[in-house]
């Protein structure tokens, strides 16, 4: 009885203490764990480069350049598309003003609030947001700083990954070393398969969106397709945010019917993704059941924000693999797992 109470108390301490530690260490941990996930994703690439005769230092450099190149291509593509959209900004601004006037008239009809009163309310809200300007600047500065720190952590993790692995193995009993090796590689494969699968899935969806938008005659279809697809990295809510943003921009840049066309194309594309692309490209790489998938995204995103939402699934998948090591935590890992997952 005492042992059961002690076990229950330990779980309570873990479930309360870990979120508290994650929150208190947020400025450091979110960037560090993103780097850990990226290091796991790039480890197979680094192993392949070393087998081909490349030195460890050069392999680390190539892996880091792969990440830099990915962000550079994405930033360049977005910048080019934004430059095309900028040429249409005056007309889009006029269209937005027309839609705003229609919305004000609708609100006045339904609530009796005059347009001037509506604008006063908006100005008050803008003033409140303006008071947060310095904190926003600080957040933006921190984001840029953390982005560069992520690369520093990534280089260090890739350079010392064998030392880290050796340290982890040395922490277990000699009889458990073989199992520890297997779980380390399983954790790496869990993160790697999920991220690479998501990259393929997002790329495929961007192509499907772009083709659908162009067939539907949507202006700036490629730009809107990129916006909608990139948000897909945010599980569950990403499609809603990206699709809503793309639909509103399409309506402002084109005709009101463009909104319905974008929603229709994305609905069809989501059906294709859910039943063909996602199972084939991503599958259940993290091995989590739907309940823990949703809970992990909600909890980690509440603590770590957007960065946490992006890595919530692979991080929780890695934690589940770690829980498989001990007989005391294995029941929890099995509870978190999907029965259909390998």
Automatic annotation (TrEMBL):
InterPro entries with a match to the protein in the record: AI-2E-like
Transmembrane segments: 7-24, 30-50, 57-82, 136-158, 193-215, 221-241, 248-272, 292-325
GO terms for cellular component: plasma membrane
Alphabetic keyword roster: Cell membrane, Membrane, Transmembrane, Transmembrane helix, Transport
The keyword Transport is annotated on this UniProt entry: yes
Main location: membrane
Membrane topology: Multi-pass membrane protein
KW rRNA processing (keyword) present: no
Family matches, as Pfam families: AI-2E_transport
Subcellular location per the Swiss-Prot or TrEMBL entry: Cell membrane
Coiled coil residues, start to end: none
Family membership noted in the UniProt record: Belongs to the autoinducer-2 exporter (AI-2E) (TC 2.A.86) family.
Protein name stated in the entry: AI-2E family transporter
Organism, as annotated: Salmonirosea aquatica
Lineage: Bacteria, Pseudomonadati, Bacteroidota, Cytophagia, Cytophagales
């Amino acid at each position: 009885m005492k042992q059961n109470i002690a076990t229950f108390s330990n779980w309570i301490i873990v479930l309360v203490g870990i979120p508290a530690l994650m929150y208190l260490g947020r400025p450091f941990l979110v960037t560090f764990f993103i780097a850990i996930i990226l290091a796991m994703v790039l480890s197979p690439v680094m192993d392949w480069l070393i087998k081909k005769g490349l030195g460890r230092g050069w392999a680390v450099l190539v892996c880091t350049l792969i990440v830099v190149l990915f962000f550079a291509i994405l930033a360049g593509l977005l910048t080019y598309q934004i430059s095309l959209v900028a040429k249409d900004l005056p007309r889009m601004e006029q269209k937005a003003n027309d839609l705003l006037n229609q919305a004000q008239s609708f609100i006045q009809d339904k609530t009796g609030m005059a347009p001037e009163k509506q604008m006063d309310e908006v100005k008050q809200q803008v003033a409140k947001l303006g008071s947060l300007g310095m904190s926003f600047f600080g957040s933006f500065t921190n984001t840029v700083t953390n982005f560069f720190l992520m690369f520093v952590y990534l280089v260090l993790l890739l350079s010392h990954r064998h030392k880290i692995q050796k340290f982890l193995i040395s922490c277990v009993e000699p009889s458990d070393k073989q199992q520890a090796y297997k779980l380390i590689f399983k954790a790496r494969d869990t993160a790697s398969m999920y991220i690479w699968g998501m990259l393929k899935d997002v790329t495929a969806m961007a192509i499907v969106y772009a083709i659908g938008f162009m067939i539907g005659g949507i202006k700036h279809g490629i730009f809107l397709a990129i916006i909608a697809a990139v948000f897909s990295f945010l599980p569950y809510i990403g499609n809603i945010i990206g699709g809503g943003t793309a639909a509103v921009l399409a309506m402002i840049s084109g005709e009101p019917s463009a909104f319905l066309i974008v929603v229709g194309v994305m609905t069809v594309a989501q059906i294709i993704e859910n039943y063909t692309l996602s199972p084939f490209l991503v599958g259940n790489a993290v091995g989590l059941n739907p309940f823990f998938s949703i809970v992990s995204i909600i909890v980690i995103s509440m603590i770590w924000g957007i960065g946490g939402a992006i890595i919530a699934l692979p991080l929780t998948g890695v934690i589940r693999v770690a829980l498989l090591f001990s007989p005391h935590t294995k029941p929890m890992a099995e509870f978190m797992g999907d029965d259909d997952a390998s």
